[in-house]
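Lab notebook, bench 4. Still working through the backlog of constructs that have no structural model yet. Next entry is a single chain of 127 residues. Request: give me the structure tokens for it.
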Amino acid sequence: QVQLVESGGGLVQAGGSLRLSCAASRGTFSSYHMGWFRQAPGKEREFVANINRSGDSTRYADFVKGRFTISRDSAKNTVYLQMNNLKPEDTGVYYCAADRTLGTWFQAFPQGAIDYWGQGTQVTVSS
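Model written out:
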């Protein structure tokens, strides 16, 4: 069973940057497609970005295209989310997710279909 631990969240001013990390353990990292979701206060959790197990295909939510970049480092069993030009509406808890079969289609399936989730890391963007 994969364990996912997010880090890198914090408080940043609008226009700033953060890099989130998600370290995977107790599993074969290269077997899993990885993704990021977020949940703003009072809202449902939503898809942010997704990368396939080989790292050569990615998919993004429209509201982060051009600002966020997902990547993975198999040597470190870690997936990253580089977030630039942050906006107050990016505030929320960011969750890492892993799945063995969904490829870059995390967005197209119910979140309950995804195999594993992390506990989340808080990102707060001040205006």
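Notes after review: Residues 66 and 84 are 9 Å apart (CA to CA). The first strand starts at residue 3 and ends at 7. Flag for follow-up if needed.
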